[in-house]
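To whoever is on call:

I kicked off a structure prediction for a single chain this morning and the downstream step that reads the tokens threw a length-mismatch warning. I double-checked the sequence; it's 296 residues and nothing unusual in it as far as I can see. Pasting both halves so you can look.
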Amino acid sequence: MEKEKSRVAFISVLAAIFLTGFKFVIGIITGSLGILSEALHSGLDLVAAVITLFAVKVSNKPSDEEHHYGHGKIENFSALIETLLLLVTCFWIIYEAIHRIQSGKGLELNTIQTVFGFIVVITSIVVDVWRSRKLMIIAKKYKSQALEADALHFSTDIWSSAVVLLGLVCVKIYEWTHLPIFFYADSVAALIVACIVVYVCWSLGKKAVDALLDTAPKAETKTVKHIVKNFPGVLDYHDLKIRNSGHILFIEATIHVDSGLSLVDAHNLSETLEKRIVEYDEYASVSIHVEPHMKH
């Protein structure tokens, strides 16, 4: 598991290095705010990808004397950092786009610049489609929030790159038609990119904060409640506690069983229930406490 997660995270870093350099060079050549904003975005993607690679490596370390629940929270923390980096990108894009619109500065491209602009954006879309799919497959396989955050991040990069591509098309349309609606196309495209980034920040940030604050995951809680409530021999239950730490789902509960059961039978019942929950989530760490059921 560790090798596969680390390998896909490392591939993501290499892809980020390539796209950042490529976009920056073409952005300077063309003077496109859309492409330069994408270059900055990819630069922060690179930082996020490096953080994710580090988080994935650390999160797989076993529990020790100081970290009784392992190191999985580093993945959630990594996802939160990625969110903050996205916000920095967003603020810069909004500032520059508004500045260009207020100053009345549009984007003018010659034929060579236009060709380079289209090449870099289309290349970015192709690379992001490939790596976002690769990351999401591994993220779902091992329930890695850090890799999932990277995958969602890069999937939105696809849309933001598509918006920049549309902006470049509109610029050329303005050059041919001189219609005012197309004059600020590049800046408007950059603002749309910023809106996409804000949305991603909200979804990623909320998920990361929920995990760091040990908010009980709704779907898992509902399923575990159903399993415990309907498990043969369980007469009642209370103190069900569920929280995520990286890819591990920690589950604790107290169940009530027939007071006439022997200690061995009660223990076997709790172990069987724990195994049933692990069947639902193979990465779950389950601890069941048993109490005799007292009739009121």
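Update from on-call: the warning came from a stale cache, not from the record. Cleared it. Sanity check on the structure: Helices lie at 2-30, 33-59, 73-103, 111-142, 145-177, 185-212, 218-229, 263-280.
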